[in-house]
Amino acid sequence: MNLAILDYLTTFSIIQIENSNTTxxxxxxxxxxxxxxxxxxxxxxxxxxxxxxxxxxxxxSPTIEAxxxxxxxxGADIHNKGYCNxxxxxxxxxxxxxxxxxxxxYNNGTLILKNSEISGIKSLNVLNTAGHAVGAAIxxxxxxxxxxxxxxxxxxxxxxxxxxxxxxxNEGLLTARRTIFMNNTALNGGQHPTDxxxxxxxxxxxxxxxxxxxxxxNITECIFINPQQGILYHDIANLGGTIISxxxxxxxxxxxxxxxxxNANIQKYIILSAEPEYS
Length: 279
Known about the structure:
- The chain is mostly beta strands.
- The chain has strands spanning 3-6, 15-25, 27-30, 33-34, 39-48, 51-53, 56-57, 78-80, 83-87, 90-92, 95-97, 105-107, 110-114, 117-119, 122-124, 138-140, 143-147, 150-152, 155-157, 168-170, 173-177, 180-182, 185-187, 210-213, 216-220, 223-225, 236-239, 242-245, 249-251, 258-260, 269-270.
- 0% of the residues lie in helices and 43% in strands.
């Protein structure tokens, strides 16, 4: 069965799953406006071959805190506190406003993302608010595993304290295998970092890709491609977190650009090279 849910406005979630086994397959969720997950899962849920597109997550009371452990998460597409297995699914062009925690996905349970893509997620500033989006695409304080997926073309804006808190903001366990992080862009507030008068090199620590705040990282065989210049740490910012492994990744063709205030010894990384073949 194919199902489309679109143009829906709700004060909570469209689908709420409580203590049950649920499979959602071949479904399109489009242009829904929710403060807390188009799907809110507190059970065991599998999401297969679905599309989440142009949904909007809006929080009415923006936060100015830099941590999410004691905040209620959002996730315009998925809000998970149970077990969620996502396969062959696309998350595209979600918009989140100031104060949102986890633009597309908020995870405070166990979530597996496999053979999927998250792209075009944008965190938007709201005039005269002190709030900011934490984790433009994903905020994780649980157990998050990303396998054979693509996280690309997402936009994160600087927080109230001039930090870039990542396309993925992690305070739990983040495991990634064979995943591409590409063209995730960090902007300073409402302005582009190349705008006149903006010196992005003066900004505080942060990352347009992964911001690890006291969590645990286990990332191997992944590709980081981000041509953006000037952002202090465009690959990973690790603040007080634990590193299990960051080995055998491709880091923009150069040494990894990582901020870390804890030990992280990266000895092995991948360099790709090619030569033209002449006939």
